[in-house]
Amino acid sequence: MSDSSPLTHFNEQGRARMVDISDKPETKRTATARSTLLMKSETLALIKQGKMKKGDVLAVAQVAGIMAAKKTSDWIPMCHPIALSGIDIQFADNGSNELYIEATVRTTGPTGVEMEALTAVSAAALTVYDMCKAAEKDMIISSTLLVMKTGGKNGDFHRQDS
């Protein structure tokens, strides 16, 4: 594999490697990811009213997402440990049966934070499921995606369909 290959996580032998970012310039970088949970309207109402037996679902999910973003390199083998400068997790819903989780992660450094944002919404979604599974086991975690990213040599990305 040459250095110009888009598959940068492979060495000359085709084996996995962590990319060397030591010569990359530090830039401000941001990434936003979103995940959607589909559930019964009754379950969403219990979450919004704070009536789940395990406690405040969104508060716990928010903390779980923040903690997960900070530990992304422990989960994803080729991710670099990154000093994050900010993590914001927000929740919204469609008023019926969908809960939306959105995480924005920021850093100034030589590599991006897309994986940290995706990890944050994934952990938050799993936490919502865990806290609500007694009320509903057939919730669906769906549509986990990168909404946008800024910074770095590849420039900005903004999903067109979100």
TrEMBL record:
Pathway note: Cofactor biosynthesis; molybdopterin biosynthesis
Highest taxon above the source species: Bacteria
Biased composition (Polar residues): 1-11
Catalytic activity line of the entry: (8S)-3',8-cyclo-7,8-dihydroguanosine 5'-triphosphate = cyclic pyranopterin phosphate + diphosphate
Ranges of residues in domain Molybdopterin cofactor biosynthesis C (MoaC): 18-152
Family: Belongs to the MoaC family.
Subunit note: Homohexamer; trimer of dimers.
UniProt name for this protein: Cyclic pyranopterin monophosphate synthase
